[in-house]
């Protein structure tokens, strides 16, 4: 338990009982050595202050909407016209607010906001599901970008107590929704950084989130500090790794004191805004009752995508405002439009996946614009690959690492700009094209002062190498 109770309340624990129960939790399995085996006392909180007291952090946040499964370029941001029926965009195209630029027909709201986007049409990941290179970089030694950020920034924001890196799944906004699956590699991998730097994954309505809420009178601050000291003394014999365990106890304690639990509560949002984000109206029962009577293996995740995507983006925006620097949003393999036993076809995917994406992302952009967050948050939308320009015999599109859709919004990205182009069939970049390291360079420059980061002391070698590799590398713009 991490829930602090008022000792004067009618159902509160006695102080002695709380010390016994709370001591076991705060110093034990939840925040103890078992969860953070790779950390030592000098790395528990990263490098927030920076060398010479100058922080390497820019103060901006990145929200990475990971379109896992691989979105089709033909039905999203790079449709081609005048091709054969098997290569033409399913459902046709629509004009955008950028003259001469078209999107797939299921993106009408984003088409109207295209003049606020950076649209990259020559991006190639060179991988499929297993690589996950846009989010788990070879350049960072197989560590996810969120883990890298936590290693530099520290695991918790010192001002708000919020974890600096998070991974949001459908379960983060609904206790009855699915959580992450370990398939084709972990997008929250930590490489050699240590498991303590894995992104924090909240589960809405569950005991973790509920127990992050503090119920203790503010005037008892001194007593709370004394309580933390008592917990530390009571479990000193478990401090096999020196101060590391104490650090995580203190970190958990600070998370509670600073009201982290409230940041996850979407009921604090304006109901009209939540309605604008809400993607639940896109749940189409007809998609889940095929004539054969057989369901697709990924149907729970297709439902979860439509059910939660909008709320996940509201939560991501709230996390960024509250001090989280890197947030990944993922609803699993819903973009995997193979039209096979596991996955739906492109025509079905337009209704089940692309239309909710259009609704939620456009709501996010409008929300950020109205809040003046357009220069403070970078939204990145891409998957681990694109999809075959040619439809298969079942009306699906198969894996295609040679070209992948990519759009960016905010944090100083040029508005209304189309970067690069693909060839006539949308199969590969026209020219050299951009790679995941170019995207990594853009993300690094958004999150960090690269000059300051280069002179930081105490950073792991894999981060130092990644900084050196991307320092002079062109970004995606």
Explained architecture:
The protein has 477 residues and is an alpha/beta fold. The chain has two domains: 13-42 and 214-258, no CATH class; 48-208 and 262-471, 3-Layer(aba) Sandwich (Alkaline Phosphatase, subunit A). The protein has helices spanning 15-27, 108-112, 145-153, 207-210, 221-234, 244-257, 260-263, 271-277, 299-321, 346-371, 436-447, 450-454, 461-471, and strands at residues 61-66, 93-95, 102-104, 118-120, 165-168, 326-330, 377-382, 386-387, 399-400, 406-409, 417-419. The strands form three sheets. It has a seven-stranded mixed β-sheet, sandwiched between helices. A two-stranded antiparallel ribbon has the order 2-3. Strands 8-9 form a two-stranded antiparallel sheet. The N and C termini lie far apart (47 Å).
Q: How would you briefly describe this protein structure?
A:
This protein is an alpha/beta fold and 477 residues long. The chain has helices spanning 15-27, 108-112, 145-153, 207-210, 221-234, 244-257, 260-263, 271-277, 299-321, 346-371, 436-447, 450-454, 461-471; strands at residues 61-66, 93-95, 102-104, 118-120, 165-168, 326-330, 377-382, 386-387, 399-400, 406-409, 417-419. Helix 9 (299-321) packs parallel to helix 10 (346-371).
**CATH domain fold name of the largest domain:** Alkaline Phosphatase, subunit A
The stretches of 5 or more residues where confidence is low (pLDDT under 50) are 1-48, 204-208, 214-221, 237-245
Strand order of the largest sheet: 5-6-1-7-10-4-11
Q: Which term fits the overall shape? A: globular
Give the count of structural domains: 2
Q: In CATH's first tier, which class of the largest domain applies?
A: Alpha Beta
Largest sheet: 7 strands, mixed
The first-to-last residue Cα distance is 47 Å
- The CATH architecture of the largest domain comes to 3-Layer(aba) Sandwich
